[in-house]
Amino acid sequence: MQIAILGLGTIGSGVYKIIAGQTNQTKKLQVTHILAKADHPAMLPIESTDYDAILADPALDAVVETMGGIEPAHSYILKALAAHKHVVTANKAVTALYLREFIEAAEANGVHFYYEATTGGGIPWLKNLENAARVDDVQSFSGIFNGTSNYILDQMTKTGEDFDSALASAQALGYAEKDPTADVDGLDVANKVRISGAIAFNTAPNFALPTVGIRHVSAQDIAWANDHNLAIRLLGEAVRQHDRFAAVIAPTLVPQQSLEAQCPDNFNLIRLDGPTIGELQFFGQGAGQLPTAHAIIQDLLDIALNVPHLARHFNRTLKNDAAMLRGDFIWRDGDTYEYLADRTVGELIIRQNEHPQASFLRIGKEVNHESLQIRRLFNGQRQSVQ
Amino acid sequence: MQIAILGLGTIGSGVYKIIAGQTNQTKKLQVTHILAKADHPAMLPIESTDYDAILADPALDAVVETMGGIEPAHSYILKALAAHKHVVTANKAVTALYLREFIEAAEANGVHFYYEATTGGGIPWLKNLENAARVDDVQSFSGIFNGTSNYILDQMTKTGEDFDSALASAQALGYAEKDPTADVDGLDVANKVRISGAIAFNTAPNFALPTVGIRHVSAQDIAWANDHNLAIRLLGEAVRQHDRFAAVIAPTLVPQQSLEAQCPDNFNLIRLDGPTIGELQFFGQGAGQLPTAHAIIQDLLDIALNVPHLARHFNRTLKNDAAMLRGDFIWRDGDTYEYLADRTVGELIIRQNEHPQASFLRIGKEVNHESLQIRRLFNGQRQSVQ
After folding, report:
1. Full-model pTM
2. Closest CA in chain A for residue B292
3. Average pLDDT of B39-52?
4. Could you tell me if B275 and B174 lie in one domain?
5. Which residue of B93, B170, B254, B286 is most buried, as measured by CB atoms within 10 A?
């Protein structure tokens, strides 16, 4: 199977390296073209800056897109599919935006568009989600989808440092980019929740998705959580019942005695629930060169070995009903922590826009509310908590 | 795809129930025969006691073996394969013993022998292990493979009760059988580690496997572990390096701040490590009617959809080298806890045979030995610990 790699950055180089290693079934794979940047000196004889010439090679079977970003990734993927080349990508932003278009173009041209590496890095999350959905109507999924923000929250918990200091150490280690927006503001998680939701529920990925990141989580919040035997994790969560669903992303309080709280460093931990499979969780390297490249190789092998993925057309009409994820929150304003019962993340986002100095944490469903030392007298009543 | 179920016990009934539900892709499956016991009144018109007549049905595609035990399961599986019927089983004992024979018979007859449900219940462990091995030489795997013993250890930890009392509550809940030997003495884990090891390392499953269960774990041990911020879990573990490997099963000390310690109730948690995929862990229902039946259905769908599994012939010659899992232990004799450095599980088993009142715990590799308040002065020196 002959492969072209578009973009020889971290992930693209990892794909090249694993295939060059020729371990086990990767012997079936061969990189025959690399699309290099025009302003970048070629390092390998197979590098080229002429994408049309690469696609014109009749021996080429598949294109690996690891350029990132929306354009030209979007048009390059469509061009490859139109040229009857399979496409495998790690690009979550372009996949979340154009998944349906890519799948339709692939089917129209008799090739595959596979995207395991977009979500969960080395964790075979999408494949296992697809397999579960062969039997079960998946009722919910949730998890830690972003390693950078998990590293920051874990560091804040272990050292007591504040967000800016933990972010700086994540940047020094190469876990966070210079502009950390996508990671710390939940945008990266949003792309992954959209892709997962599209597969789990067979619906279009552009659903409403209230998204809160971790920028407002303070050292004080972490200490407050710790005093209540809780930890803070950035969770993406989606639920479905019959023809209704909802999804949110928010910093969430979880019990210290839980898998989520024990998910360390930059690891990911993602869960699904189905009526027959029960609860299933996956833990591993959610990013990084070799784990992400490994996921791309797995997609390439599925193509080489003719392993079909679940065929989804994302055409199920579901009602997005935020009330399904209505729940309780902790609201901080200055040094005061309040308990807010029975709200949606969307309502809290609006409230926070009016109080920019305040912030809030979702209370995870595994949290024992007794541990918050709160008596909830009636629906919606706020009580100060210690 | 037409299916015969051999044995309508808990798991067989679960398979019948899921297929009868006709959800999603299970619409491709149809149960057309059930092999019933001769002394059991037939409940369904498709029940029969004539196995030869079932296999003689030319429309039959696959046999699901959920009888358990070694015979007649072994000869029934071979008979089905000889009749060119695919076989899917949940029977770990017969699979661990005859895996190579079954695979060879399946290949000789142009059909498949699939056995996902033998290991990890609803967790798609074997499939993911196989996929990882398509790219990586898996370096190690380990985990909590038995829900019954995990439930007992978790109960002992939560309530402080002793082994007999926790076993009785597991039996009352249906998590443990009347004769709990296979679960609490590590024999069930041994079958699963043999099957996993055969796939991971492509070697015959009948390798030497020092096996210790949890019968000797006392309430006092649990309290001692808790005093040192540790928990006790029954772990199976296997490692490989080049042409050498080793595997053991033993009650193991793990940090309370770890995924293993947070694996509650009767759940399983299984891990693999590979050079490119890194660390990957799977958590879920390791037993139970619907999760185990779900795993059988997944194998049936792979056959129906022509999804190939990794072809293994278990013919790699590896040296079983117990020294690779040499490590440190806590030895209890009466009220005295001692630290034993640099031993093998096999050496400890011999020592315990000479001191039947004593017991031992393996020290897991994630344990910070400082937390045991031990200074290890030189290799092999024992020190009493508090």
Report:
1. 0.95
2. A277
3. 87
4. yes
5. B286
